[in-house]
Predict the structure.
Amino acid sequence: MRVNRIVCVMVAIVAMVLPSYALNWDEISTSGDYYFGVGHGKNEAEASEQAKAQIAGSIVSHVSNTFTLESDEKRQLGETEYRARLQMRVNTYSNATLTNLKTWDVTGSDPNVTVRLYIEKAEVQKAFDARKDLARSMAGNAERFLANRSIDLALQYNYWAYSLIRSLQDPYELKDADGNQLIVTLPARINEILANISAEYVGRDGDRIDLLFKYKGETVSSIEFSYNDGRSECSGAAKDGRGVIEMIPGYTTDTYHLSVDYMGLAQATGDADLYSVLQSLPRKAFPRAELNIADNGKKTEAVQPVKNTAPALPAMPAAEGKKSAMPDFVACAHTVETVVNAFLRRNSLAADTCFTPEGFKRYRALMKYGNARVVGEPNLKYYKTQDGYVVSRGLRMSFSFSGKVKKTFVEDVVFTLDRDAKIDNVTFGLGQIAENDILLRDAKGWTDATREMLLEFMENYKTAYCLKDSVYIRNIFADDATIIVGRVVRRRQFIDPEQDMSDRGKEVIRYNRLTKDQYLRNLRKTFNANEFINIRFTHNDIQWLEKYEKENLFAIQIGQEYRSSTYGDKGYLFLLVDMTNPETPLIKVRTWQPNEEDITKLYNAGDFHR
């Protein structure tokens, strides 16, 4: 036994003394296992770009020969155009891979510098494999979105998955759980969804046409579309069935033509790889995406707000001695009616006296949020809250922006009234699905007050980003908040056992974290650069971390669509919020993960708190 120990020790010593295997440039350039490039330039940056170009050319040349030709695409485009598209398609792998280049050496000095770069060929195969996994994940997510009647997401995720598969070397290789080729089933699925979409003419008010969108006879949660307003192409987004198109003044027609957006190009700009794939492929046409809506001549009726409707949800009794402090529903209804009529007459000054000073600031910001108009007949309902306020819901408005491309959103507008029946806050509603996830959730320990607090927080959060309220956003982030932006980077690193979070949490903090001041500086630049910002929450899951007795901590995982005049993306927002004091909630952690993440891979409270 002692001899074995001596041998083991000697082997260990020899291993420490002998040099480890070292890669040399001759092997890189002759083994066939690497792509490499040698660049010359006046400086290191110029030489590096030349070396990268060489590597990109090698990747394109090698990978092009591995693609299986799609005969239908070749017939459609012709040999020359097909080859050009194939080149673009292969370039997407080159672009995705070049971020992992390694530098062998940099020699010389300005103005005569040489740079040698290299990368394993296996890295390109990893890019192919990553797209396969992503396509499967997106196809699965599309079915979940369809179940919630989020038609835009169901269509776009299916189309994105289909496009990623078309970019593979052998697009017929990838199959679903039943053995069916996804390259065949996905377009059939898109066609099936489109065949069950309908749009109904509701009425016309001047140059604005109100529409109702349904899927299999039920109102959709969301759908996106494009149309021509008589002069140029425009885009619109419907929420909970209601959508709006705005024609140029004086334009009349018997039929309005819409195209359902199944491609989601604007929303893919947040993912450079996906966006490059969509751009490199010829667009797949789906004729059923075209909808024709007849103008039946019906005018949108003048809106008469409902007065003094009873609370639609049960409310806890007011605390003893405070019953007289609850605002009167008749007075609240009168206040809201005055504001709605001011919207209808486009005379905002007529409602100025209906607000508290804080509420008036939010109201003025709302009036500057595009061209605001009331949509349909308000179905106003009033809810008692636990802290002596009344909330009014049921007003739906459209907001149009006439930038490079005219864009129209539909939003629910929510009013919160104080004990004097003055409006103290104005927010955008979450949408029916996200609302129900909070209000109807059967969670242990949740009270009506808890649900109200969470709904109010999420609506304030959404509205602050839409109205570019950087002051509110600064106040809700803790000074030491963990703020994660952009794409998640996963790398292995040393784990400090003293820190109370998971390995994944440490990874994302180490490589993607911004300080609060950095985040706010970037946010102000984003606000200044965009004509509009719009956020839509699709669904959420909220966990109350009840074991933290001194803090009222909530972990919020929510699907988010972000749209602006210059950028769009979809993904998952995670917030860890301390609501010990409901008046001043504090975000402890904020992470963002892109649309391709499988739900099981999303960050959660366990990654940052145990």
